[in-house]
């Protein structure tokens, strides 16, 4: 009987547990299951949970629960730690290792495979994708992103209504999204926009440097035409002459954020209007109230299919999504080599999607589940009080 170790690593999502449940339900009859707690740290420090009946039942009760029920986290997985991880897996008698995670997780998984080869251990490794940033390479998208995109788009649509209602008091809102070096999430903020007066009016993505003149031009035009302006900025955006803003470095990884505050200060100074910046918050990645039904279904399938492929002998691959047709979305999965995923690095928003947002929205819509209810246009009566803006 195979012995399968399973862990989750990196930032959690609203649907990462669905992938775990899909996998566990697929392998539990034929394999012994060993859960790894707290990401790669659990492999090194032997935070294992035996997959007995009660534990399996507890894990599978998380199918619709956000977070990462095994514990995830970020951990300095050094070469020494990797050697220890493989030694521990050997000690446990595990012959297969699954990790559910993003680009960092896949890189670590391949390192574990290479170390196992060094130690003469036969270890199958399989990666199951998750990301809210959609920066994972060699796949059309990954579970977690659709829900996060829906969350951001709905938030921005509603924030427009909030700000429009208050425009005699506050005129500009700057909303900062997650995404690290990739603009997929920030760019998704416009997918539910139905009327020109609705926000977002300006979106800044990390793939392009932020031009002060252009920002000012668009914000002024929105204030002039609609009386208010909504700006969306991805946490990884740099000014044309600036660097990425790092709030901290933890285990060698930068915690990004703060560009929205700088934009707030800039626009206040330039326009002498009331401006508020806001971080959309950590629930972008794991909020359960905005889960996309498509994303939830796909997350489970990724786990199920990964389990099936392991039974058929797959090794050092990640389960990935392919899209064959743009206009008729059908979920299709295929194995890709971990080396290829890693080789691609952090995948940014393609320039054709930046230049043509409608083509991006067409690509994105199938991943959002039910989408959003339609709102009527904002008030047609223009009673604005910003003579300063011309
Ligand atoms: N280059 C690497 N070498 C070894 N381990 C890594 C590497 N990158 C990431 N990891 C491990 O994988 C974990 C998950 O990666 P991280 O980048 O945090 O999230 P994600 O997998 O979502 O991109 C890290 O916390 C770390 O333990
Ligand atoms: O504060 P942290 O640890 O950087 O977490 C926030 C980050 O986590 C993420 O949600 C996801 O990161 P990973 O998928 O790479 O783990 C990023 O978008 C965001 O930058
Ligand atoms: Mg990552």
UniProtKB/TrEMBL annotation:
Cofactor: Mg(2+)
A Pfam family that the UniProt record links to this protein: PFK
Family: Belongs to the phosphofructokinase type A (PFKA) family.
Record-annotated Phosphofructokinase domain positions: 3-300
The keyword Ribonucleoprotein is annotated on this UniProt entry: no
Organism, scientific name: Pontibacillus halophilus JSM 076056 = DSM 19796
A GO cellular component annotation in the UniProt record: 6-phosphofructokinase complex
InterPro entries listed in its UniProt record: ATP_PFK, Phosphofructokinase_dom, PKF_sf
Keyword annotations: ATP-binding, Cytoplasm, Glycolysis, Kinase, Magnesium, Metal-binding, Nucleotide-binding, Transferase
Superkingdom of the organism of origin: Bacteria
GO molecular function, one term: 6-phosphofructokinase activity
The protein's role, per its UniProt record: Catalyzes the phosphorylation of D-fructose 6-phosphate to fructose 1,6-bisphosphate by ATP, the first committing step of glycolysis.
Matching PANTHER family: ATP-DEPENDENT 6-PHOSPHOFRUCTOKINASE (PTHR13697:SF4), PHOSPHOFRUCTOKINASE (PTHR13697)
Catalytic reaction(s) noted: beta-D-fructose 6-phosphate + ATP = beta-D-fructose 1,6-bisphosphate + ADP + H(+)
Top-tier EC class: transferase
GO biological process, one term: canonical glycolysis
Pathway it works in: Carbohydrate degradation; glycolysis; D-glyceraldehyde 3-phosphate and glycerone phosphate from D-glucose: step 3/4
Name by which UniProt lists this protein: 6-phosphofructokinase
Keyword GTP-binding: no
NCBIfam families xref list: PRK14072.1
Cellular localisation: Cytoplasm
């Amino acid at each position: 009987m195979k012995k399968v170790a399973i862990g989750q690593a990196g930032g959690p999502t609203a649907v990462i547990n669905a992938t775990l449940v899909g996998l566990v339900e697929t392998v539990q009859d034929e394999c012994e299951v060993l859960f790894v707690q707290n990401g790669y740290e659990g492999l090194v420090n032997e935070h294992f949970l035996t997959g007995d009946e009660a534990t399996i039942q507890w894990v599978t009760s998380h199918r619709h629960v956000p977070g990462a029920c095994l514990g995830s986290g970020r951990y300095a997985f050094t070469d020494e730690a990797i050697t220890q991880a493989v030694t521990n897996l050997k000690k446990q008698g595990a012959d297969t290792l699954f990790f559910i995670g993003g680009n960092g997780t896949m890189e670590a998984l391949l390192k574990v495979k290479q170390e196992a080869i060094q130690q003469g251990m036969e270890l199958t490794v399989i990666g199951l994708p998750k990301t809210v940033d959609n920066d994972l390479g060699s796949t059309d998208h990954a579970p977690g992103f659709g829900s996060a995109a829906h969350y951001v788009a709905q938030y921005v649509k509603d924030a427009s209504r909030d700000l429009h209602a208050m425009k005699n008091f506050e005129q500009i809102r700057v909303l900062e999204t997650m995404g690290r070096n990739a603009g997929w999430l920030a760019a998704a903020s416009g997918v539910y926009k139905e009327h020109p007066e609705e926000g977002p009016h300006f979106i800044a993505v990390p793939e392009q440097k932020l031009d002060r003149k252009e920002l000012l031009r668009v914000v002024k035009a929105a204030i002039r035409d609609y009386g208010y302006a909504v700006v969306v900025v991805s946490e990884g955006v740099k000014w044309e002459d600036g660097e990425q803003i790092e709030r901290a470095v933890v285990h060698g990884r930068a915690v990004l954020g703060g560009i929205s505050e700088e934009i707030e200060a800039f626009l206040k100074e330039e326009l002498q209007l009331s401006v508020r910046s806001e971080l959309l918050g950590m629930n972008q990645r794991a909020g359960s109230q905005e889960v996309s039904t498509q994303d939830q279904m796909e997350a489970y399938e990724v786990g199920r299919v990964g389990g099936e492929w392991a039974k058929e002998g797959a090794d050092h691959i990640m389960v990935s999504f392919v899209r064959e047709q743009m206009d008729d979305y059908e979920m299709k999965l295929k194995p890709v080599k971990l080396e290829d995923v890693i080789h691609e690095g952090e995948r940014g928003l393609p320039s054709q999607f930046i230049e043509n947002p409608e083509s991006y929205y067409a690509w994105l819509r199938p991943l959002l589940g039910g989408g959003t209810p339609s709102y009527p246009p904002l008030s047609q009566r223009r009673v604005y009080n910003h003579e300063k803006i011309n």
